Amino acid sequence: MKRFLGAIAFVIIMIIVSNMGTFLAKSEPTLYLAYPPNNHQTTSDKIFLIGTASPDREVLVNGQPIDRNKSGHFAPSFPLKMGENLFSLSDRDREIQVKVTRIASEPEMPVGIAFAKNSLSPAVDIARLPDELICFSAIAPPNATVSVRLDNQTIPLLAQAQTVRLPPNSAVLTSSNEPATSEAGNYQGCSTFSKVGKLGNPIFQLSLDGKTITQPGAGGIEILSPSKLEVVEITAPSGVARTGPSTDYSRLTPLPKGTMASVTGIEGEWLRLDYGGWIKREETRSLPNNIPPKSIIRGINSRQVEGATEIVFPLQVPVPVSVQQGEKTLTLTLYNTTAQTDTIKFNDDPIIKRLDWQQIAPGQIQYIFNLKSEQQWGYDLRYQGTTLILSLRHPPQNQKQNPTSLQGIKILLDPGHGGTETGTTGPNGYTEKEVVLVVSKLLEQQLINRGATVYMTREEDKELSLQVRVNAIDTVKPTIALSVHYNALPDWGDAINTKGVGIFWYHPQAHNLSVFLHNYLVKQLNRPSYGVFWNNLALTRPYMAPSVLLELGFMINPDEFDWISNPQEQEKLAQTLADGIVEWFDTVR
Prior knowledge:
This protein is of the alpha+beta class. Helix content is 17%, strand content 37%. Strands 11, 18, 21, 22, 25, 26, 27 and 28 form an eight-stranded mixed sheet that branches. It has a six-stranded antiparallel sheet with strand order 12-17-14-13-19-20, with no helix packed on it. A six-stranded mixed sheet has the order 41-40-42-45-43-44, with helices on both faces. Mean pLDDT is 92; it is low at 1-27.
């Protein structure tokens, strides 16, 4: 009987093993293309194909074999011609067709006597002060005669021998940050106008081979009256001020709600404020009077509140401000303000050694806070009525006698992406949103084990807007904030040869943390270095706490993806990162 049961057991085991073999055979990775999607459009002159297949099967792209790593992942790049490019990927069992269309990055030169489509500038309504230089431009055939008529002036637009075209900011990420030149075809000219009022739309004129055409510009021109400038108030919780009239321009210090300023220029939906910054009209409201907002300032005092020192600046109106952090300084600049200051109250303070100030220009005052430590822990700016309050956060009160403890430290972890926002995708379809959540949860536990209080922006696969994540930092007021991500590249990048740890910062208070964690991870984990970058990102911009964004490796690199997706390496990464955070706090105590 026992022998019979043993025989049955043996047969059952053999069936199971046989079925497992069949299952394993069926579960071998079939040919899969993670990027690009079909019908992808790009201005790049090349494209990488990210995907995977069974390691023991040859993969062909347009009939030619490609290199893959030991896991079967691949990421070769191919040149793109203008227009449609077809790629056929195949292994023994499957074929994938993908179409990539390369589109022009510059306006196409017109055929015949015509201006290039959408090339006339200004393209939107603009307003400027009297006698301020206004420039016009157009793209037209070579050897044409081009001019603009406006307000009884004829302004010649001269052909530029060549136009320098700067690469996008993302070119820095691929070490390809070189300007390029365009050939003749760009015509430019400038003039000034004194008459106040709406001058109408400029009329562009083009003459070539004895023929002449005219075309009205899309943007009208208005000259503002200096004595009747519009006055606006910032209505957004934090007004996004920029160096120019579009989101392509760099950000300035956000303007606190309630800030008032005169409008000295308009470009479409953008307003130029009297201190120089530009802001979207939707973040403001027009005030019923046109008295230019200006203030004097007299005495200044300070006070200590829980976890911070507040400096109080009584003003007559809420004026524009800017903040600049240095090694052991924080400089606050008030605009449209004149000093009548004789007295400043400042007791001995936990973080501030001394406050200096000077009127550096008419209507512009600089306050320089000389700090006791190089490490700054965050600040806040707000108006209460017309009084400006600057809050400088104190260092965390953690246990100095125990260098391995994070007791008293609050850390916010932000696992990037989530929900429909998948982030980048690895060769086999494993998404960034999935791996960052795994690593963040592992890191959360490691930090808790070391005594930290940890806040997570998400603990499941759900979509969160950038603003919700930023608001979490402002609400929680953590000691530090870490946004966890994995990396990819623009289409023109080298996916096979680019790998490594990268960390991004924006405010100087986060620089030391970025450099330390980058160097620590690279050394302790023996990982390649991608680098440390200043970068204008939503999750590096919060100034309430040192905030950095971690790019822990490249999902699109075949070899690095194997490391990224390895559960044992994920555990090791979380432990090492937690150790690095402990050591950083020990260096800045």
